[in-house]
Amino acid sequence: MSYSDFSLAKVKRDFNLTIVENGRFLPETKSIEPSIYLQEALSEGLPIATATGSEKARSELIISPILLEVRKILERKVSLFSGEDFTVAPDLGLSGTCDFLISNSSEQIFIEAPVIVIIAAKKGDLKPGLGQCAAEMIAAQKFNEINNIPIKTIYGSVSSGTAWRFLQLQGQILRIDLHDYTVPPVETLLGMLVWMVQEGQ
Questions:
Q1: Burial class (CB in 10 A: 0-12, 13-18, 19+), 84
Q2: What distance lies between CA 80 and its chain's CA centroid?
Q3: Phi then psi for 29, rounded to 5 degrees?
Q4: In this structure, are strands 18-22 and 79-85 parallel, antiparallel, or unpaired?
Q5: What is the spatial distance between Cα 70 and Cα 83, in angstroms, rounded to a whole number?
Q6: Peptide bond before 47: cis, by omega within 30 degrees of 0?
Q7: What is the pLDDT of residues 162-197, one digit of tens each?
Q8: pTM for this model (two decimals)
Q9: Could you tell me if residue 140 is left (phi over 0), alpha (psi between -120 and 50 degrees) or otherwise beta?
Q10: Treating both helix axes as pointing N-terminal to C-terminal, what angle do 36-52 and 64-73 enclose, rounded to 10 degrees?
Q11: Do residues 196 and 67 lie in contact, with contact meaning Cβ atoms separated by under 8 Å?
């Protein structure tokens, strides 16, 4: 079993979660102006990713440039992993690869530091990706516990590139913000992602 096999109902049942569906749980964050690099990347990539509609195109042409920008804004003090194996507890089904993962370390060779943000890329409908993202967040929580790192909050997002839906895991409480944040514009999203990473440090 892998992360992609989890539905939201299965995650809730298997890990005894309480799911809270509410409005925005993040504070109002300051928008961040994108660099020329990101502006050009999205100007070229958005139309292609939207036209082809493939999950891979959305990941490579929209999500990846945005997350690279977040790492750059944070002076490369965090690491970004894409498609990396993140098997934490195979006996619980917490195995497989994460689409994107941000870790609190500048090291890129392997995942060693606290995991603070998980991004699951989806082709269109975000709802089916909530279970996968939640399972990966639980794995991140357990990963940090195994490494004796007391991070209380794990953030996650299910994204199509042009739409982002956020999740927050604290203990066994999973909060889901049912409002989808759209790109463009990217300024608000950058502010939110940078805040999440900084909050987790």
A1: middle
A2: 11
A3: -105, 155
A4: unpaired
A5: 18
A6: no
A7: 999 999 999 999 999 999 999 999 999 999 999 999
A8: 0.93
A9: alpha
A10: 160
A11: no
